Amino acid sequence: MSVDSVRYILTPELLDGRLVSDISTATLKDGASKRDEGSSSSKPIAKRTSPSRWTSLEYFLYYAVIIYVIPHMFKAAYEISKEDHPNYLRYSSILSKGWIPGRKVDNTDMQYKGFRDNIPVLFIVLAGHTALRKFSTKLLGNADIQSRTVFDNVFAAIFLIALHGISYFKIIGLLATNYAILKACGTSKATPFVTWGFNLFILFLNEWKRGYLFGRMFGMEYAYIDTQFGGIMPRWEVHFNLTMLRVISFNMDYYWAITSGPDLERRKRPPPSHQSDKDRVSSSHPLTFYNFSFYLAYCLYSPLYMAGPIITYNDFVAQNLHSGKQPLPSTSIKPVLLYGLRFLLSLLCMELVLHFCYVQAISKASHAPYNAWINDTPFQLMMIGYFNLHIIWLKLLIPWRFFRLWSLVDSIDPPENMLRCMSDNYSAVGFWRGWHRSYNRWNIRYIYIPLGGSKKRPVVNMLLVFTFVALWHDLSLTLLTWGWLIVLFILPELTARAFLPYNKYGGNWWYRPLAAMGGTITVLTMCGANLVGFALGVDGVKQLIYDGILNAGWAGFAFLGAVLGCLFVGINVMFELREEEGRRGLFLGC
Q1: Global pTM?
Q2: Domain segments of the chain as ranges
Q3: Active-site residue among 129, 285, 355, 473?
Q4: Quick check: is 473 catalytic?
Q5: pLDDT in tens, 174-199
């Protein structure tokens, strides 16, 4: 395997075919406009990038810092995870047996533990689904959307009954109720409000009624139904949050289709391979395609049911229409195999971190009477927080990539949820474009733009979006605090962009260092917000700051200064990585 092949495996282009296809579409459109204007054929890409700095003296200094600091970061996390560390016995009881000789594994995150312990079963289900799909196609003699929909609905019924038991019929009941309400509303201007009102009501009701347990609703004499017929994962309401997003996507795409104009205009459309991602998402279908059978197949599509990524209804139907004869290039054998390799590399990375850096267990045992980080140095304490964030990133990335891989094998290409490593982010706005990317795109299409986007009350719109995001994740004050903190930390960046726009000042020598300083502060605030929301909570972060900086006196503040300097170096490297992508014609906006 050549060096270029290895580099390609690590590029964003491998992760999502949309990036390559959208570049091609933009290039074709740009070329056509230039021919019409009689101008030269030179690409505008070069005007948006600067000469490479990789071999400059400035960057050789950065390399020296990186070569020294990064190994010490891993060393600090590893040293506090060794058996001979004074605090090891304070948390060792919650570690599990590992498969790497001489090491235990930190399997203390219950959310990821459920996925990790069932990886072999999930691969068997993936293989079984693929084999049955091929058998079904041969049996029916074609792979048109009607045949695929029949298979999807039958498999989903079996899959969900295995997962949720009798609660499958609760899900069908909720979906049928929504469909009936939608069809009753039709072209009424109240349809969007009814859609949101009903689905938010169901979101809260599911949580309040704990999934409508028979024992709670009809008396304990019926509790045996919940225990004996509840399936492998009785808490179906947890996964219904994702289903709700698909329900809203179907409702709104149908509403925009029925109110957008004559139905005949949508009957002749090119295959998805000749459409951009934007076209597939925004272009409506003939109204006959918004039927109950397609709706069920979309909402309960097995590969994406449990964790996503989220694909819009219009895009899902567009890909299903041509998946047999003209599927997207990203679902062909080579891209899927390379994506599978990238998934396995991510899984291996997570296994190494969990076997050698027990930071989750330490943070879970940090309170009295365990005090698992007592007497640790400021550097070690910060590494506990930093590697916790990396584990959060990986524990989300790995399931998302597995289920997307399953979908790609099935010839459906949903958006990639994470394009960048957690440590390759310096912008709060860019971070949320690249973190849970499919959900971000969903929020923009169905909440942010309908509310007015950036043109009308952008701050209020952002606050509403992140309030919904927090409540959608979990109806808790901790995540609501997290959502509002994100908006608070985004505002300074938006203000700086408004007063110092890149297109006006980007050519000045001082612009990049100033932007790096701003990025340094942003990284610190985003780390704090995500530790609050997903790892340590408000009290845990306050304790981490106190023990790591305030309680250490001048040494703590000196360490904070060193952290800021290292972040400044890292952010300048991130700038150049994005410039390098720009030279390839890739502008991700994150």
Answers
A1: 0.90
A2: 3-37, 57-114+334-583, 144-322
A3: 473
A4: yes
A5: 999 999 999 999 999 999 999 999 99
